[in-house]
From TrEMBL:
Taxonomic lineage: Eukaryota, Viridiplantae, Streptophyta, Embryophyta, Tracheophyta
GO biological process: intracellular iron ion homeostasis
Pfam family membership, one: bHLH_IRO3
A single MF term (Gene Ontology): DNA binding
Record family assignment: Belongs to the bHLH protein family.
InterPro entries in UniProt: bHLH_dom, bHLH_IRO3, HLH_DNA-bd_sf, ILR3-like
UniProt entry keywords in alphabetical sequence: Coiled coil, DNA-binding, Nucleus, Transcription, Transcription regulation
Coiled coil segments of this chain: 44-95
Record-annotated BHLH domain positions: 3-54
Record-given protein name: Transcription factor ILR3
PANTHER family hit by this protein: BHLH TRANSCRIPTION FACTOR
Length: 95
């Protein structure tokens, strides 16, 4: 029969092993194709850098999207002006 302290040690070891496996899995998803770092601090450091990079890219994409939406509005307004001008010219020709 396993005593309580041995049981707790076993549970702790299982939890640590599971946590280590998750760190390795997480590390492998950060940079697929590269060797997985076994150092938890290195994995967390890489993850932090990646999150910072992704936030920066997301901000740049939001800004680009905003400027493109503004350009679309300008082009639509120009298109409407040209359409109105065309209609006026057609009316003038028919007179």
């Amino acid at each position: 029969m396993i005593c309580m302290c041995q049981h707790l040690k076993l549970l702790g070891k299982l939890r640590r092993n599971k946590l280590n496996d998750r760190f390795l899995e997480f590390g492998s998803t950060l940079e697929p194709g590269k060797p997985v770092k076994a150092d938890k601090a290195a994995i967390l450091s890489d993850a932090t850098l990646m999150v910072i990079q992704l936030r920066s890219e997301a901000q740049q994409l939001k800004e680009t999207n905003g400027s493109l939406e503004e350009k679309i509005k300008e082009l639509k307004a120009e298109k409407d002006e040209l359409r109105d001008e065309k209609q006026k010219l057609k009316l003038e020709e028919s007179l």
